Amino acid sequence: MSLLIQLRWLAVGGQLLTIQITRNMMDIAPPLAPLLGAIALLVVINLLSLFLLYRGRAVTNIELTAALLFDVAALCWQLHHSGGLANPFASLFLLQVVIGTILLTPRSAWMIVAATLIAIAALRVDPTPLDLPPDYAANPMALYLMGSLVCFVLIAVLLVAFVSRISRNLRDRDAALAGVRQRAAEEDHIVRMGLLASGAAHELGTPMSTMSVILGDLARHPAIADDGELGADIADMQAELQRCKQIVGGILMSAGEVRGENPSITTVRRFVADMVTDWSDRTQGVIELRDDFGEDLAIVSDPALRQVIGNIIDNALEVSPSGLTIHSQRAGDDLLIDVLDDGPGFSAEMLAAFGRPYSSTKGKAGGGLGLFLVVNVIRKLGGKAEVTNRGTRGARVRVSVPLAALAYQREALA
After folding, report:
1. Is-contact 119 97, C-beta < 8 A?
2. What is the pLDDT of residues 163-201, one digit of tens each?
3. For 54-91, what is each residue's pLDDT tens digit?
4. How many Å apart are CA 322 and CA 34, to the nearest integer?
């Protein structure tokens, strides 16, 4: 519709210019009232088309067909009052047929063809001849050939310009649809993985509860209670089992199975600092925190976000075991978390395939799902994840999340 509007404005300007040239430079006096009336109708159609374009929903095939039919009728009316088929600009009907063929459904395109044939037939019925001055009246064919040349150039230029743009729009639409289909396939993959993880978490719940009971009984057994070394081992096993329960609980929470538990309220600084502390306890390397967030903000602690950022940290520690840096900052209304490592960086192939499933540098079957989940979880929150290399060594993974997706309340905390 936007292209039709532009084409119609060109038609209005071109027709006004043509009337001016024929009257002042060629001494031809076309009937002004019907011609200017048709131009006014085109302006009204354009204003209505602008309303359709900016009302916030897609333009339908019926609306596009009606707009082109109005254009055919307006051109027929103008040609009828300026010589009929003897006017070389009758070839402009071809432009509307080509545009209709590209933009409309086959049935509607044939409707445009039928409308142009009816218009051409109507132009044979008592058209208004032009009152030509003696120079042109003596050789009307010369005037017709000159007009045909101008019409050919006009049609050729408009077809190349507008058909090329229409084709580009169609290619962009196809690319967007392909992206939507790819995203739908990825989200379906995530749903299946989530169902698998949730099912596994439920299945693990029963044996872990049994192990917890057994370990509790063993810890109270006199033979073990009197043996300090065995008691310490039992305590370690209980701590690790409790950690397994927390991991399973996090999986269920991420899958939406919190079961009545209130969400955890924290702040941005505490959320990031707790992650750094948690992962620092699991590694021998040094995890440095750079906090440039500014005024703190209360948020709901999202276990899915914590999990995907932890996945990034785990991957970074594999290539940079000596340590890494986590940089937290605020950019407008977004929370930015950068994970900076000192590893070898990403290859060009990995940078291009970042976030695709089963794209991994580890060479393991089924690898690459971690970063795939990172990209999709962050996208669900309205943010994005990006990877870049840091000069000659090291990489940066940036997670950007809108604060509105996490905020518990608008006011900042002291």
Report:
1. no
2. 788 788 888 888 888 888 877 776 666 666 665 665 676
3. 776 777 888 888 888 888 888 888 888 888 887 888 88
4. 84
- The model's pLDDT over 236-270, given as tens digits with 9 standing for 90+, comes to 888 888 888 777 766 655 554 443 344 578 888 99
CA atoms within 13 A on the CB side of 71: 29
Angle between helices 2-24 and 140-220 (to 10 degrees): 160
Half-sphere exposure of residue 163: CA atoms within 13 angstroms, side-chain side: 15
Q: How many residues does the chain have?
A: 414
pTM exceeds 0.70, yes or no: no
Alpha carbon distance 237, 231 (integer Å): 10
Residue type, 156: A
The residues with which 412 forms a beta bridge, in sequence order, are 297
Core vs surface per residue 162-177: b (16+ CB within 10 A) or e: bbeeeeeeeeeeeeee
Q: What is the 3-state secondary structure (H, E, C) of the chain?
A: CHHHHHHHHHHHHHHHHHHHHHHHCCCCCCCHHHHHHHHHHHHHHHHHHHHHHCCCCCCCHHHHHHHHHHHHHHHHHHHHCCCHHHCHHHHHHHHHHHHHHHHCCHHHHHHHHHHHHHHHHHCCCCCCCCCCCHHHHHCHHHHHHHHHHHHHHHHHHHHHHHHHHHHHHHHHHHHHHHHHHHHHHHHHHHHHHHHHHHHHHHHHHHHHHHHHHHHHHHHHCHHHHCCHHHHHHHHHHHHHHHHHHHHHHHHHHHCCCCCCCCCCEEEHHHHHHHHHHHHHCCCCCEEEEEEECCCCEEEECCHHHHHHHHHHHHHHHHHCCCEEEEEEEEECCEEEEEEEECCCCCCHHHHHCCCCCCCCCCCCCCCCHHHHHHHHHHHHCCCEEEEEECCCCCEEEEEEEEHHHCEEEEEECC
Q: What is the token pair recorded at 4?
A: 């039709």
**By the 8 A CB rule, do 391 and 342 touch?**
no
The residue to which tokens 């080509």 are assigned: 98
